[in-house]
Amino acid sequence: MAVEIIKRVILSEKGAKLSALNQYLLEVDTKATKPQIRQAVEEKFGVHVLAVRTANMKGGLRTIRGTRRQVVESTWKRAIVEVKAGERIEML
User: Fold this and answer.
1) Nearest to residue 26, comparing CAs of 42, 7, 43, 13?
2) Beta carbons within 10 angstroms of residue 45's beta carbon
3) What CATH number does residue 72 fall under?
4) 92 within domain boundaries
5) Nearest CA-CA partner of 15 in 7, 6, 27, 5
6) Which pLDDT belongs to residue 35?
7) Which of 3, 29, 31, 86 has CA atoms 20 to 30 A from the CA of 59?
8) Is residue 89 part of a domain?
C-alpha cells in the first residue's frame, strides 16, 4: 500500500530547509488522503507522523529549450510530512 501512495521524496532547496525542522516533502498519489499518507509514511519509513499538509500542484505548459515545441506537464500532489523530533526519513 505504501508503495502506491508514496512516489518519491522530493530533493530540493525547500525540502532541505524543511528537513531541518523535521518536515519532509513527498510526491504522493493524487487521490491519497491525509490519513492514508500518514499510515503509508509510518509503514514505509518507521517514523511517527505528527502532521500532514497537502497541496495539489497544477501542471502546465513547458517550452522545450531551443525549439518551438511545448509539453504539457501533468498535475501532481505534494505532501509536507512533519515527523517526531529525533526521527528522520532517509532521502536516498
Assistant:
1) 7
2) 19
3) 3.30.70.330
4) no
5) 27
6) 97
7) 3
8) no
Question: Distances in Å between the alpha carbon of 92 and those of 9, 56, 66?
Answer: 8, 24, 33
Q: How far apart are CA 54 and CA 80, in angstroms?
A: 6
Choose among 52, 53, 58, 48: nearest CA to 86: 48
Domain range holding 72? 2-83
Q: Which residues pair with 81 in a beta bridge?
A: 24, 52
- Each of the 92 residues of the chain gets a pLDDT tens digit; together they read 666 899 999 999 998 899 899 999 999 999 999 999 999 999 999 999 999 999 999 999 989 888 889 999 999 999 999 999 999 988 75
Q: Please report, as a single letter, which amino acid is at residue 11.
A: L
Number of domains in the chain: 1
User: Residue 90 and residue 17: Cα distance in Å, rounded?
Assistant: 15
Residue 91 lies in a domain: no
Kindly report, residue by residue over 55-79, the tens digit of the pLDDT.
999 999 989 888 889 999 999 999 9
